[in-house]
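Model it.
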Amino acid sequence: MPLRSRFSPEAGVDIHRCLVCDTRAQSICNAIDDKELAILAQASKRLSLPPGSVVIEEGSPAVAFFNVTAGTVKLFKSLPDGRRQVTGFADVGHFLGLTNSETYSFGAETVDTVRVCRFMRPQLEALLADYPLFERRLLAEVTDELTEAQEQMLLLGRKTARERVASFLLGRMLPQTPRQPETEDRMVSLPMTRVDIADYLGLTIETVSRTISALRREQIITGTDNHGIRILSVSRLQELASGQDNR
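Modeled.
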């Protein structure tokens, strides 16, 4: 039975978390009208997970899907001997676990403290049946993932170490708020370890550290008090990422 037909306004569903959710505007959840937020709240459950928590176990039954509302999740594939290849990092607004298969083809683990909204498969399928806009937003999410996978293949297959690190830093650059002036000075979100970065980029941790140090010496980036990274020249980093900087 469709979720709309099954939903009862008297069910006492708490919609406050959806009303005050800061990330709803940038996620697939904005496909649900404000007047029907109770349906969205009924179909999902909010979870808070500490660093190092397993969100998705590779090969386990694909019974749930997750919308990241805070923090960063590490995605990876495992080899039989236990080695891992980090394939990506999911931040706020990403949707994890969508598959036509009966099992998950990848693993996912929290990098820092993460909040997610979990949709069990029957509830998600009901939302897709009742809300075509929700389905279109989910399709757009899948399309974005395919684009990211193509960029990752290019990064691993053709780019140099400097180009890989530059591309990674640009991809982790925090967006500017409307009130902020246009500037070359931008912050980068790096909650993951250097080991995870090296694994994702297909480099050794020594190469990643040397490359970041070189970019600091060239005054393209700088460190911050909280061990983060600030981009001092976005344009130079973009030139480097695209192979146009021969210095």
